[in-house]
Design goal:
globular; alpha+beta; 2 domains; Ribosomal Protein S5, domain 2; four-stranded antiparallel sheet
Length: about 400
């Protein structure tokens, strides 16, 4: 559904749940990272875009005047109740700790929204690597901005949302997801410097191309353990190379120090250093609508993630192989895994007029090989967080 359709739908659902029309409505998008994987905690660059899937929230003041916020989800059985007069700490249900952390962040800034009834709905698939949690956080923050009339600087809002993940949901995430959800602009990608938090909008004005997001519907239970290992290996490489972070190392430095590194640590560093370079080059390629170059950088990213960083899996590799078989004559410029790895999604740069046929071909070939039905959708760069009714 478009944002206009979602607004009408959530209005009707709110009325069903609470018996009245909502006073405020806000939304925030999920995201896909086009390139720049595992560079964030190495102080590098990432190039995400907001996608046309959203978390939308509708709210109204409680008629009883109590200082309680009730978050009710259309997809979760248990609602989240936040008592504004009680100490803020994590509680059940787990999903509710994301908006609970947002409320805590507002209260810490001296902004009390008062009692509310809130209904939320998300079209961002859960657990798919498309950042449904950041969309939830940023949507909650944007709704509270509408309620209170207090606008928070987008950088501060993204950091507030990250802190909610860290302190309330116990998720030690980076900053990319919250930044793109807050800063996204229709028709643009976002080049984010993860060291300085400087952002640069990268226009994608050529409507002859778009991105396909292919959800493998597979998750291998390796992610958190392997993530910590990769971080440690990168820190070891940076220490041996004598730099603050791998952002500061060059390929020449790495090659000269190769004998000092174990094979595994060398390959981890080779991916990160190369990926930072690929990300900057891809941003320039998108500015120039140089789609063959952007596509080749995406393939190179996937191969490095598969071989050097070892965070891919057979299902992700299969999707990339299917896309590569189609090549640009079949409408595909490039494809890579996106997200932390070990399952989740791939992202493909495709010709707009061939997107539907490409989706069918990838879905059919993937199901024939795995027996799993992939979920595939297309998206242009979407708008970031927005107040839809105030």
């Amino acid at each position: 559904m478009s944002l206009k359709e979602l607004t009408a739908w959530i209005t009707a659902e709110f009325q069903k749940n609470y018996g009245r029309v909502p006073r405020w409505i806000a939304a925030a998008p999920g995201r896909v990272n086009v390139i720049g994987e595992h560079t964030d905690y190495n102080d590098g660059f990432v190039l995400p875009m907001a996608i046309e899937l959203y978390t939308i929230m509708a709210g109204d003041k409680r008629p009883d005047g109590k200082g309680i916020i009730t978050f009710r989800s259309t997809s979760q059985q248990h609602e989240t109740v936040v008592d504004l007069s009680a100490p803020m700490k994590p509680a059940s249900p787990k999903w509710g700790n994301y908006p609970r952390g947002i409320v805590a962040g507002f209260l810490a800034r001296g902004i009390n929204p008062g009692g509310l009834d809130v209904l939320l709905h998300s079209t961002v698939p859960l657990g798919s690597g498309l950042s449904s949690s950041a969309a939830l956080e940023v949507a909650a923050a944007t709704l509270l901005e509408a309620v209170t009339g207090k606008t928070i600087d987008p950088v501060e809002k993204a950091l507030l949302a990250q802190k909610a993940s860290h302190d309330f949901a116990n998720v030690p995430c980076g900053i990319m997801d919250q930044f793109i959800s807050a800063f996204g602009r229709e028709g643009h990608l976002l080049l984010l410097d993860c060291r300085t938090l400087k952002t640069e909008l990268v226009p994608m004005t050529d409507t002859s191309v778009e991105f396909l997001i292919i959800n493998t519907n597979v998750t291998h239970e390796l992610g958190s353990r392997e993530y910590s290992k990769r971080r440690g290996e990168c820190e070891e490489a940076a220490k041996i190379l004598g730099v603050k972070a791998l952002r500061d190392a060059t390929s020449d430095q790495l090659e000269k120090a190769k004998a000092k590194l174990s094979d595994v640590v060398y390959r981890r560093a080779r991916h990160v250093i190369g990926e930072i370079e690929r990300t900057v080059h891809a941003a320039e390629g998108i500015r120039r609508s140089n789609w063959p170059t952007v596509g080749q950088l995406m393939y190179a990213s996937h191969y490095a993630l598969r071989d050097d960083y070892e965070v891919s899996c057979k299902e992700l590799d299969l999707v990339v192989a299917i896309a590569e078989d189609l090549r640009y004559r079949g409408g595909v410029y490039g494809c890579r895994m996106t997200g932390g790895g070990f399952g989740g999604c791939c992202v493909a740069l495709v010709k707009t007029d061939a997107a539907e046929s490409i989706s069918k071909k990838i879905a059919a070939a993937y199901k024939a090989e795995t027996g799993i039905q992939a979920a595939i959708f297309s998206s242009r760069p979407a708008a970031g967080a927005t107040i839809l009714k105030s």
